[in-house]
Specification:
By secondary structure, this protein is an alpha/beta fold. It has 14 helices and twelve strands. The protein folds into two domains: 120 residues, Alpha-Beta Complex (Aspartate Aminotransferase, domain 1), CATH 3.90.1150.10; 206 residues, Type I PLP-dependent aspartate aminotransferase-like (Major domain) (Aspartate Aminotransferase, domain 2).
Length: 374
């Protein structure tokens, strides 16, 4: 029998860490099946795409497998070069990261000190606030207006110690976005001492002329960082690979705080191989465009009212004062959705667009729990 481990008092850790509520990941399918004795579980909780890596990415992963005894390219040279060419930027203006989430962490480490501030909408992606608090910085969260980021109110929240303003486009967990005109008006007013981070993790899902492309703002010389990821439509969430497009000084700072060899060889090779598959990218975008209204109809048929218009691969709906009972009820039926307490919305759930078969399974589960009242 193992000996008793040492007890470490809370006072040993920094006050900022003691005050944190950590990001709560969703339950894995296998664990839910084991716990509840279920034959099938459908996971619609984490905004992963319903499809795996592109065929070219799978082949690239297989090709690099024999060399996994070697450390990866710490500078991600080939991937950064390809991304720079794609966006007509310099190599020095591209930063790889462990998903866009990993880049939020790097930006926080590089820029925030105790007492500094960040501003973001709320409810929104928790890492903006969590990563600031880890460093003793203060998150100023601004309530959404009509389910979308209220950019005017966010500008009013900017103070002399504000370093970063995060704009989540589309917003996670609501799936809503701001228009090009609204973003242009924001940039006309935002103070010079602020760096704006446009988180566009779901960019490839959207084909809308009013949807802003953050690279345009970068090329216009604005103080902006654009975050993108291969986790969603590209099907590489399990490899944790994303990138930032930013002024060279920001990319240099990210490189100083990012862990050495942070991005694995399979992640780099799979991402690189995914860049030149426009037909598969379009097929997945079209499939999502067909699946989202199907999912919305199912939710509405069961007295749920998703926020909209939603543009990404998920929907957000309020279910009552506390969404955990709803989550747990569906869980027992074999469907995992995401209660959004950690996002600042304890009364709601987020549901990812799945396959038509996933949606049928969800509809049947909702039929069985129809006695649950909103």
């Amino acid at each position: 029998m193992a000996g008793r481990l040492a007890e470490i008092a809370d006072s040993f850790f920094t006050p900022a860490v003691n005050d944190l509520v950590p990001y709560e990941p969703g339950k894995p399918v296998e664990e839910v099946q084991r716990e509840l004795g279920l034959d099938r579980v459908v996971k619609l909780a984490s905004n992963e795409g319903p499809f795996g890596p592109f065929p070219e990415a799978r082949e690239a992963i297989e090709r690099c497998a024999p060399e996994l005894n070697r450390y990866p390219d710490g500078g991600a040279y080939r991937l950064r070069t390809a991304l720079a060419e794609r966006f007509d930027l310099r190599f020095e203006e591209v930063a790889p990261g462990a998903g866009s989430d990993g880049l939020v962490d790097c930006l926080s480490q590089a820029m925030l000190e105790a007492g500094d501030e960040i501003v973001c909408g709320w409810p929104s992606f928790p890492s903006y606030a969590i990563d600031a608090r880890k460093l003793g910085a203060v998150p100023r969260t601004v309530e959404l207006r009509d389910g979308r980021y209220d950019l005017d109110a966010m500008l009013d929240a900017v103070g002399p110690r504000t370093k970063i303003v995060y704009i989540c486009l589309p917003n996670n967990p609501t799936g809503t976005t701001n228009t090009r005109a609204e973003l242009d008006a924001y940039f006309e007013r935002v103070p010079e001492h602020v760096l704006t981070v446009l988180d566009q993790a779901y960019f490839e899902y959207i084909d809308d002329p009013d949807y802003p492309d953050g690279v345009e703002d970068l090329n216009a010389g604005r103080r902006v960082v654009v975050l993108r990821t291969f986790s969603k439509i590209y099907g590489l969430a399990g490899l944790r690979i994303g990138y930032a497009l930013a002024p060279a000084a920001v990319v240099t700072a990210i490189g100083k705080v990012r862990r050495a060899f942070d991005i694995t060889t399979p992640a780099q090779e799979a991402a690189l191989a995914s860049l030149d598959s426009p037909d598969e990218l379009e097929r997945r975008r079209r499939t999502n465009d067909e699946g989202r209204p199907e999912l919305e109809a199912i939710l509405r048929e069961h007295a749920l009212d998703p926020v909209g218009p939603a543009l990404a691969n998920f929907l957000f709906a309020e279910v009552g004062d506390d969404s955990r009972p709803f989550f747990e009820t569906l869980l027992r039926e074999g469907v995992i959705v995401r209660p959004t307490h950690g996002f600042g919305a304890p009364d709601a759930v987020r549901v990812t667009v799945g396959t038509p078969d996933d949606h049928r399974f969800l509809a049947e589960a909702l039929d069985r729990v129809s006695t649950f009242s909103k």
